[in-house]
């Protein structure tokens, strides 16, 4: 790997005042604040350290309140050294939080704080609500009409009071659809919340409604589709083997230099502003008058990512004997080869000036190019979008397409930008904050650093951000829509997708639930899904129900290499990259938590337990831990009831990671029960690999999630084999192709906040957990980026097993682990 620096820009940290600005409704009167604190004391309500309503591992109760001093009885508090501490609590069903200055020193059982100046209401609404009044009428489906009084409202939402006993109680359950009549205005409302008891004063129930003035069709009912199961199990298994075999043939051909590079058809075209876009065209048959498929770039991705989809479409149309043209392109001011501003040229800065509205203009330029270029002029065009490209795609179709698209196929897309960003950012609502003037600066989102102030302001100004914006667009879209929704995709709000697709004429709209996560690029699962996409393109564009075709996998691998060779190899300072990944970035108090945060989740512990079982350790053995990081393997052994080896040798490139491993292992007392040694070695070099044999012989070796990150994995496996005697065990693992971290992140952060991550371990409160988790999520996203760019390579089970077999190991088992669904493969082998 190159030793050139890979630039990673730091994200701006969110100050407490900014978060407070996002929650302006507060009790600020000193007397009322004290009344609430006295009530918390009387009722012994738990205060949770953090900024949200999750039950946190560190909690406290008020012991006494005197003057400006609040004495707390604490439980499971870690020393943080912070002078300002956040607490959250729930009173009468309403979540609150406040910030208070610490007075004196923390101890294990108590803490003194100053009386807070304000206690904030904590809300998760899309918009602020303002008090309002007036009367409206609600009409249920069966025609029952009843009155309600408006209490507050926001764009797209109403809080109303409904009279108990008015015959309406059973009609205002959550999810109910009602017609809303307000003066001369009519709208469609959906009940989002309904109190179970009358309001103060009796006789009324509070009901929360989302209201849209746009006509709603009968709700689109999701269809469960399994692309593999729809065909025979035997055929599916054959295809999976064929995928692995195709990749293996491609790898062998590349090593021996037999692969003939296919031609890559690069096209350039201009936006309305005269800025260049660069794309790649795939096709079959006469391109003039053919069906055209336009694929804009997904979040943080380049045109090369969806080569497998393009070739699947081509193979399917070729099978039909129908000509087709597929255009995938890089966006302006995004990663890739299209126009970018000079100050965004360096790696890590490519999307600093990114905006979604530019993506809408890019789509218009792509359709203009195909329609005006004499080589193409398609009869019909289909838009296929992935991930956040659904934002720009929906506005293009609603406002600019003018009948130019025959259909829209949306894959793992989001209904609205705001909900997606909240999920990815660990709860931070960038869009709502920007609307209120909060400055965020540079923020890293799934490995993409953007100027959040610029991007958010643009999305608000161009009406691309909110659920209401999405509803307005979907009311105007008049082409068939097929939405492929990943069942394991934790980045997207499933209910909002159903909401927006039911606005307007939904007669030709479908939601297909497929058993995938968010990442779809090159795995067998991705190719199965791409076949479904190809068949839906043919159905909507040609009116034909077809069985899709799989592309020739050896040709696909050759085309992938040809496309990557056109681009500069990603520069990577391996040691600096892994240091940041393993150790994390220090916060304002100098603390840093990197991969250890993920090590504490149940998903990672499950992976480590699976690997430990595969090692089948015995007392007195010597074990080699290759790519040891911060010592997760010895720490797992310390927590288990299994046999401890006589010696563990930890090997890693990053000396600081080994030092942290030493600190953590000694804190657990493991060094008193077994010998642990630490060896720094660069496993990507022949010298580093040779050092493994010099440390041997070992009875067993673990190579956990490390094979993917060296230039020559076969050489590393042979070096490990040289350090083992015949019969010695090796357990190797790799992230799977198209590894998807969305579920692991969402479930992991919930675990960490709910108490799996003890305060004593890292000394983090709720807000700090989310900040550290967000930072590690971005580091994980950079791993995926580098894999996509060819610096790293992830393997499916058959591929990893083949690597071990070629290196001289007899494979005993291949299994999946790490999350639900599993995102890694574990292979157990014995040296022959």
What does the model show?
The chain has 832 residues and is α/β, with parallel strands linked by helices. Helix content is 34%, strand content 24%. The chain is built from 24 helices and 33 strands. The strands form five sheets. Strands 16-26-25-22-21-19-20-18-17 form a nine-stranded mixed beta sheet, sandwiched between helices. The protein has a seven-stranded mixed beta sheet with strand order 29-28-27-30-31-33-32, with helices on both faces. It has a six-stranded antiparallel barrel with strand order 2-3-4-7-6-5. A hairpin with a 6-residue loop joins strand 32 and strand 33 (824-831). Helix 3 packs across helix 13 (553-565) and helix 17 (632-639) packs parallel to helix 18 (655-668). The longest helix has 24 residues, at 233-256. The chain is globular, with a radius of gyration of 29 Å. The two termini are 31 Å apart. The model is unreliable at 1-23, 50-56, 231-258 and 756-760 (pLDDT under 50).
Q: Distance between termini?
A: 31 Å
Mean pLDDT level: 82
**Percent strand:** 15-25%
The tally of strands reads 33
Morphology call: globular
Helix proportion range: 25-40%
Structural class: alpha/beta
- Sheet with the most strands: spatial strand order: 16-26-25-22-21-19-20-18-17
Strand count, sense and barrel status of the largest sheet are: 9 strands, mixed
Helical stretch count? 24
Give the uncertain stretches in residue-range form: 1-23, 50-56, 231-258, 756-760
Rounded Rg: 29 Å
């Amino acid at each position: 790997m190159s030793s050139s620096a890979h630039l990673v820009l730091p994200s701006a940290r969110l100050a407490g005042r900014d978060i407070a600005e996002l929650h302006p409704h507060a009790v600020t009167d000193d007397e009322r604040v004290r009344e609430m604190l006295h009530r918390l004391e009387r009722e012994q309500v738990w205060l949770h350290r953090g900024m949200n309503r999750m039950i946190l591992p560190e909690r406290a109760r008020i012991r006494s309140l005197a003057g400006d001093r609040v004495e707390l009885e604490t439980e499971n508090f870690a020393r943080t050294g912070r002078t300002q501490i956040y607490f959250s609590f729930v009173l009468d069903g309403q979540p609150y939080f406040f910030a208070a200055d610490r007075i004196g020193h923390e101890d294990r059982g108590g803490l003194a704080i100053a009386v807070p100046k304000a206690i904030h209401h904590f809300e998760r609404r899309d918009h602020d609500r303002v008090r309002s009044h007036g009367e409206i009428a609600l009409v249920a489906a069966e025609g029952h009409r009843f009155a309600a009084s408006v209490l507050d409202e926001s764009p797209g939402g109403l809080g109303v009071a409904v009279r108990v006993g008015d015959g309406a109680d059973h009609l205002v359950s959550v999810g109910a659809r009602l017609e809303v009549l307000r003066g001369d205005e009519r709208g469609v409302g959906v009940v989002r919340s309904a109190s179970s008891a009358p309001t103060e004063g009796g006789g009324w129930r509070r009901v929360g409604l989302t209201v849209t003035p746009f006509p709603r069709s009968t709700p689109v009912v999701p269809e469960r589709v399994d692309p593999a199961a729809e065909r025979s199990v035997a055929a599916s298994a054959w295809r999976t083997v064929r995928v692995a075999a195709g990749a293996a043939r491609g790898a062998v051909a590349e090593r021996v230099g037999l692969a003939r590079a296919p031609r890559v058809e690069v096209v350039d075209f201009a936006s309305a502003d005269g800025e260049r876009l660069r794309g790649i065209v795939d096709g079959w048959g006469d391109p003039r008058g053919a069906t055209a498929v336009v694929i804009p770039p997904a979040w943080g991705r380049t045109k090369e990512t969806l080569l497998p989809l393009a070739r699947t479409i081509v193979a399917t149309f070729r099978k039909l004997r129908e000509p087709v043209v597929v255009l995938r392109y890089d966006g302006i001011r995004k990663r890739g080869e299209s126009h970018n501003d000079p100050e965004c040229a360096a790696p890590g800065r490519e999307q600093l000036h990114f905006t979604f509205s530019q993506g809408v203009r890019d789509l218009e330029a792509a359709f203009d190019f195909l329609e005006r270029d004499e080589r193409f002029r398609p009869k019909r065009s289909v838009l296929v979008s992935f991930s956040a490209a659904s934002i720009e795609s929906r506005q293009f179709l609603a406002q600019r397409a003018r009948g130019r698209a025959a259909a829209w196929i949306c894959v793992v897309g989001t209904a609205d930008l705001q909900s997606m960003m909240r999920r990815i950012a660990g709860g931070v609502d960038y869009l709502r904050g920007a609307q209120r003037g909060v400055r965020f600066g540079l923020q890293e989102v799934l490995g993409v650093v953007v100027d959040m102030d610029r991007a958010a302001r643009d999305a608000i100004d161009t009406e691309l951000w909110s659920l209401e914006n999405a509803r307005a667009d979907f009311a105007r879209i008049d082409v068939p829509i097929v939405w492929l929704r990943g069942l394991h995709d934790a980045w997207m709000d499933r209910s909002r997708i159903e909401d927006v697709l039911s606005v307007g004429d939904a007669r030709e709209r479908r939601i297909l639930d497929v058993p995938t996560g968010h990442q779809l690029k090159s795995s067998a699962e991705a190719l199965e899904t791409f076949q479904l996409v190809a068949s839906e393109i043919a159905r909507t564009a040609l009116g034909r129900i077809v069985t899709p075709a799989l592309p020739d996998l050896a040709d696909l691998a050759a085309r992938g290499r040809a496309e990557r060779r056109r681009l500069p190899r990603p520069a990577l300072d391996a040691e600096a990259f892994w240091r940041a990944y393993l150790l994390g970035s220090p916060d304002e108090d100098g603390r840093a938590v990197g991969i250890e945060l993920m090590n504490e989740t149940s998903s990672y512990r499950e992976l480590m337990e699976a690997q430990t079982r595969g090692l089948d350790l015995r007392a007195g053995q010597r074990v080699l831990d290759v790519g040891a990081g911060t010592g997760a393997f010895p720490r797992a052994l310390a927590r288990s009831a299994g046999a401890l080896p006589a010696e563990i040798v930890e090997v890693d490139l990053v000396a600081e990671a080994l030092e942290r491993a030493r600190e953590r292992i000694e804190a657990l007392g493991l060094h008193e029960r077994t010998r642990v040694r630490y060896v720094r070695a660069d496993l990507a070099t022949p010298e580093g690999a040779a050092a493994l044999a010099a440390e041997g012989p070992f009875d067993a070796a673990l190579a956990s999630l490390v094979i993917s990150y060296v230039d020559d994995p076969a050489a590393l496996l042979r070096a490990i084999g040289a350090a083992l005697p015949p019969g010695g065990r090796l357990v190797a693992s790799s992230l799977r192709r198209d590894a998807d971290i969305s579920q692991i992140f969402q479930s992991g952060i919930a675990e960490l906040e709910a108490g799996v991550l003890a305060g004593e371990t890292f000394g983090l409160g709720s807000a700090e957990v989310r900040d550290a988790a967000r930072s590690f999520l971005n580091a994980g996203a950079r791993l995926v980026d580098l894999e996509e760019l060819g610096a790293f390579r992830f393997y499916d089970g058959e591929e990893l097993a083949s690597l071990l077999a070629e290196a001289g190991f007899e494979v005993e088992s291949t299994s999946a682990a790490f999350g639900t669904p599993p995102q890694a493969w574990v292979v157990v082998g014995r040296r022959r």
